[in-house]
Amino acid sequence: ISTYDYVVIGGGTAGITIASRLTENKDVTVAVIEAGFNAEGLPEVFIPGFIGMGIAFTTLDWSYATIPQANLNGRTLTVNAGKALGGSTIINSMIFSRAEKEQYDAWGQLNNDNTWTWSALLPFFKKSELFTPPNVFQVANGVNYLPSVHGFNQSEGRVKVGFPNFFFEQSALWRKAAEFLGFAASPDLADGNPHAVGVAPNSIDAANNTRCSAACAYYTPFADRENLVVITNATVSRILWANSSAQGKLVASGVEFILTSSNETQTVGVSKEVVVSAGTIGSPKVLELSGVGNSTILKTAGVTPVLDLPTVGENFADHVHSWANSFTNITLTKDALLLNTAFAAEQKALWFQNRTGLYSALPRSLGIAAPSDVFTPSQLGSLIAQAEANLTHFATEFSNGNPALARGIAAQHSIALALYKENKELPLEMNLEPGYSGPTSFAARPARNYTTINSVLYAPLSRGRTHIVSSNPLTPPAVDPAYWAHPLDVAAQVGGIKLARRMLVAPPLNSIYNGEFEPGADKSTDGEIEDWLRGVVASDNHEVGSCSMMPQALGGVVDTQLRVYGTMNVRVADASIIPFPVSSHLSSTVYMIGERAADIIQGGKA
Length: 606
Ligand SMILES: Cc1cc2nc3c(=O)[nH]c(=O)nc-3n(C[C@H](O)[C@H](O)[C@H](O)COP(=O)(O)OP(=O)(O)OC[C@H]3O[C@@H](n4cnc5c(N)ncnc54)[C@H](O)[C@@H]3O)c2cc1C
Prior knowledge:
The protein is built from 18 helices and 24 strands. It is globular and about 70 Å long. The two termini are 33 Å apart.
């Protein structure tokens, strides 16, 4: 069998970043094993506006199903995750914002490690990106940026970050409406102070208006490196362990995988390290299939335990979103593409002619709300008091019987509530969708133009889990995000709908308002909104925490060097290590993790 210095499991956002950086050194060999294929050449992937069309959401998506969600009317929700070289950045919405600096600082605080704080991590955020400043047209359409927080290094920067070349009128009206309601205009949504409203940066190549995925950023330009071997269409079934341990710790000796084409099982050897980067649902699955996890869960699934690390797969959290939408008097919306096929054909032609038009961009304006935007002071005071009084109760409930993790979740909640009190925890993202977005299909809703305000629950306190149910590597795990298990999450999401409604009728957005569609006039009280939401909220695909970076005494799975407790040479590096949900879309943070992981593995040379 072939042996490599490093084997990376999962060629997704973090995985391909790490492999690419490690192989900058010609003397280092890396194999990446990826379940999906290289989808870079698909129009559904590289044309921004084609997102969600064609095969992008079937073949390229794990479409993990949750178990029935007790607090959401027993519904089974779908958590999307990319299955391709480049992982979720192949199918994501390309919003490239960052969370608030206080949350990155809290991450370090939880780990007693000031190298995981905003100021220490900013160089890694910057290293990952190659930023194109907005042009005159973009500035005229409301784009702001702060050069000091972006990466401009032509030889080092990888992820092309830019702004859309197309804007919808209603987005500008909405930003003004948000400002009317007290939101500040953001100087830059990636500056660590996102409590504001602004145009989101995108992971887009501004030179030709194509998606810049992790594959296009970190793989395609380096595909001919002899020391970088990428094996696609290969699902990792387990990590192989050496017969003897070192210093009482497990030593990985190789990785086993199944080729999709032939169902054949193969192995590669590893001389230095295994890096698990299979995503928040994929990574705990690989560890559990390899015998690392909660021994009881493993035995029930038919896997022989090798290392009892009972918090693998626990501490899982995800953002959920909901909507308020109205009919609008404006006709240039995304709905127009569905309502008028001739218009859609024209717009498609524009993309192919000169890369302009509605398919050339996914423009999004975001407004990140603070508690004071969502709650009255007395509401907030009583919600925090209740959460504090019930802190141990919920931390214990969410910990699945693990006392260390109960302490860890309690510590996370204490930090979140302290930030809530300072109006620094940012519980919701509001974003303007220039068209219909919501739970009703095209066929079932009035054939009209819409304005939608999405409301994403950004700082949920609920924690769930994801675990294997079978030793068969091709069997999906049981994913239980335990959505809405904490009352503060419910209150915040209800508050988000009320804020969205206020925005829809605030000037100047009210100039295009033509009546609310959803939730609808019959949902007026908090209770009615809550009941409606239980039937409709959906995953925002921002799952984190299942292999969390926390001290072992707090139920963590990896240490601050990303090493799995109890192993010599296995690290996890992807969204699963983020200890608690952060108030942002995640890809920029995951690239930062990839950059930091590569740096750690190389001995901190950066
Ligand atoms: C539909 C959608 C929209 C999103 N929108 C945005 C957005 O607009 N902005 C933003 O910042 N973030 C967004 N996100 C979130 C963001 O893209 C992800 O959080 C991030 O990319 C996750 O990176 P990762 O490295 O943890 O996992 P991934 O990038 O998902 O990579 C994991 C990789 O591991 C592979 N894998 C899994 N199991 C195995 C196995 N057993 N063997 C081999 N390979 C395996 C997978 O196929 C995948 O390639 C979105 C996500 C989705 C799904």
